[in-house]
Amino acid sequence: MILLLIAGAALAAWLVMAASYLPTLRLYRLAPWRGLLLPAAALLYALMTLSSALRHLRGGGGLWKGRTYP
């Protein structure tokens, strides 16, 4: 029962997030279904942030076009 409640809350949050993004999508004349992709974009951004943090902890700098910057 608790899992169903959690899943319902997650679905509701996802739909509210997508609906709140609709004005931006309209401004740029993009399809409304793109709002449903926000969780995937958030996951990608989180993974890139984690990768950057790990590279920094290992002593690496920023990487751009095959070059490393301090």
Commentary on this structure:
It contains three helices and two strands; from the N terminus they run H-H-H-E-E. By secondary structure, the chain is mainly alpha-helical. The chain has one domain. A hairpin with a 2-residue loop joins strand 1 (62-64) and strand 2 (67-69). It starts with a helix and ends with a strand. The mean pLDDT is 91.
Strand-helix topology:
Blueprint: H1 2-20, H2 22-27, H3 38-57, E1 62-64, E2 67-69
Antiparallel strand pairs: 1-2
Number of domains: 1
Low-pLDDT residue spans? none
Strand order of the largest sheet: 1-2
Tell me the helix content.
Answer: 55-70%
The number of strands is 2
Average the pLDDT over all residues and give the rounded result.
91
Q: What oligomeric arrangement do these chains adopt?
A: single chain
Major sheet details: 2 strands, antiparallel
Q: What portion of the residues fall into strands of 2 or more residues?
A: 5-15%
Radius of gyration over alpha carbons? 18 Å
Order of helices and strands: HHHEE
Highlighted features:
mainly alpha; flat; two-stranded antiparallel sheet; 70 residues; single chain; 2 strands
